[in-house]
Amino acid sequence: METAMQRYLSYKPLMFSLAYRMLGSVMDAEDIVQEAFLYASGTNLDHVHNPKAYLCKIVTNRCIDHLRSASKKREVYVGPWLPEPLLTSEEHPIPPDLALTHKESLSTAYLLLLQQLSWVERAVFLLREVLQYDYEEIAEIVGKSSTNCRQIFRRAKQAISPSSGQDSERNTKIKQPLKEQTAAVVEQFVHALTSGNMAQLLSIVKSDAILYSDGGGKVKAAIKPIEGAERIAMFLAGVLAKVPEGYHYALANVNEQLGIVAYVNDQPHNVLTFQVEGGQIQAFYLVVNPDKLRHLEAGSVES
Q1: What's the whole-model pTM score?
Q2: What is the pLDDT of residues 50-106, one digit of tens each?
Q3: Alpha helices, DSSP H only, in the chain?
Q4: Are 276 and 177 spatial neighbours (Cβ–Cβ below 8 Å)?
Q5: Within this chain, do residues 137 and 31 fall inside the same structural domain, yes or no?
Q6: Total number of domains constituting the chain
Q7: Is residue 301 part of a domain?
Q8: Same domain (yes/no): 165, 184
Q9: 3-state SS, residue 25
Q10: I need a surface site. Which of 17, 68, 255, 288 has the fewest CB within 10 A?
Q11: Mind listing the pLDDT tens digit for each residue in 247-274?
């Protein structure tokens, strides 16, 4: 018979994976998972038929409640909104049953696609597509019929992947770049930018690339997305030319893709992640909002 601690250690990575994808916030996901387990600890789960589904239901409902309460803040958010960067580590491991096939569902591009869905659509989609629950289990978690959940899932998939058409569910996952391909392109990008090789830089950035900069109105950032390879290159070169004393950066595993984490005097300054397509960078995601960087411990990435 599982103890409460054994259950916590066993299910925490899965619950965090669900909450983070629902919210796009590391700190809020951690809080909700803690609250869910504290609540469950007061319940005798030995008589619960499916403890994992029960915990998923608690986490899902708390995520939806949180999204409802935060919706007004999102409406007045200054500039582009980006999810909090997640440094994959021992503290935030990928559950073993998801590690091989669903690492890409943590990418910034994927999380932004999820933001297009309603809260219930997002929950059903994640439970089915990423966590691989069957419709009967999902119905129990979200409080809808299995038939309704099947329809919600198909509608959600169509909303974020219109080209999927009538393909089977298992063959139409949102395609993301291979981690190895992304790493190679990011390394080329860093070399080109830091060496001032603009020709090389422009060769690995798509001409119609776009850069999103999330400052949340807390620090200086581009209020509107920057479009075009040349404008992006000039913007990044300008940022690099103005870095303060004590600035250093490191390549790190961010949202299961290679990204750049920068510090100033060992305090987190910004995180840059990428969307790579066809060997070139299609999108840049720059998080400079200090509220979204607080969970990054000073010196957590070696430079």
Answers
A1: 0.85
A2: 788 888 889 999 999 999 888 877 778 899 999 999 997 655 655 555 544 456 678
A3: 4-23, 26-41, 51-75, 96-99, 108-114, 119-125, 135-142, 146-160, 179-195, 198-203, 229-241
A4: yes
A5: yes
A6: 2
A7: no
A8: no
A9: coil
A10: 68
A11: 999 999 999 889 999 999 889 999 999 9
